[in-house]
Amino acid sequence: MDRHVRLLDILASLWGALAALVGVSMLLLAAGAFALSVGPEGETVALAAGLTAAVFASIGIFSLLWGVAHMWAAVLLRRRAASGRALMLGLGVVNLLVFPFGTALGAYALWILLTHEGRRLFEAVGVSPS
Question: Alpha-carbon distance 98 to 101, whole Å?
Fold first, then answer.
């Protein structure tokens, strides 16, 4: 079961890095849309560019937070912290809605972390993984 938790740690890190990359990309797109609204043609496209910038910025911030949460959960899983198990369970449930890769990651996380062996790995206090 320890191998599965290590694999889940790696997959959560990758998923978090991809989400953070999407977040940074969306923030860059938001900056471009904002630049259009203050540019020379700003009067004609101000509403559309402003709305686009706001939507892209919102998606970007959410994606960054989502990615950071996954990367933090991966660090906690690596340390075998009980809070990492709880955080990854919560993220795994929400990931079930993100078809297809999030669904696979969420199902795998739930399968690993809800078994008796998976629970035992996170109950041992002061024991570091070998």
Answer: 7
